[in-house]
Design brief:
9 helices, globular
């Protein structure tokens, strides 16, 4: 969980979108002047029908896409005004991501999947391994960290993916349908972990079609 957040960070949104316009095809806008801010210590659900641009918005908020116009701000800094390398550094240092399909590498061990982001943060391998083992245990993954994840259940895979996202206690955590393929019990584990992380000081944003997941959040934004 996040600790030691300064008063200035409490006043400034951890993440903010201002008048975002985005289109994949010229003339067909997926988002048209969308704005919202996300405070530290809160969990927000992005809801709405399929095709409204929720996942696209998450990629924009995560600095993996750039808007046609408008701004994405991290701690008040306009990310459109910095170099690509600096945006990549921001993404590595401040963000965690959880995707619906878990996106695990079946050729690598469970633990290696969890600690792969250490490469981008230049973190100690020893610390990353220790922290990775701790999170896998906390989330009760129920599989050897040295086993390859090719035959794990969907619930185990998503807990592994969540462990990876939480490895360095990111200040901003983005999750795209993290419970979409899970049974109710595993869904509760994932949502509880995300909520605990948010209430520890992070901004957590979840794209979801689940009324139960949305209800567990501090607020809902409908696209």
């Amino acid at each position: 969980m996040i600790t030691g957040i300064s008063p200035s960070q409490e006043r400034t949104p951890a993440l903010e979108a201002r008048d975002i316009v985005f289109e994949y095809v010229p003339g067909t806008r997926v988002l048209d002047g969308w704005s919202a801010s996300f405070a530290s210590g809160s969990m927000t659900a992005l809801t709405g029908p399929s095709g409204r641009g929720k996942s696209t918005l998450l990629y924009l908020l995560g600095l993996m896409l750039q808007p046609k116009s408008g701004s994405i701000l991290v701690d008040g800094q306009d990310t459109g005004r910095v170099r690509d390398a600096d945006r990549a550094r921001m993404r590595a240092e401040h963000f965690g991501f959880v995707f619906q399909d878990a996106a695990l590498d079946a050729t690598r061990s469970v633990l290696d999947n969890v600690i792969e982001t250490a490469l981008y943060r230049r973190a100690s391998a020893a610390y990353a391994k220790q922290r990775g083992l701790e999170i896998l245990e906390q989330l009760n993954v129920g599989i050897s960290p040295h086993r390859k994840p090719g035959q794990v259940s969907g619930g185990q895979a998503q807990r592994i993916a969540l462990s990876r996202a939480l490895l360095f206690s990111p200040r901003i955590l983005l999750a795209d349908e993290p419970t979409g393929n899970l049974d109710p019990l595993t869904s509760d584990v994932v949502v509880d972990a995300l909520r605990e992380h948010a209430h520890g000081g992070a901004a957590v944003i979840i794209v979801t079609h689940s009324p139960d997941v949305a209800a567990a959040c501090d607020r809902q934004l409908r696209l």
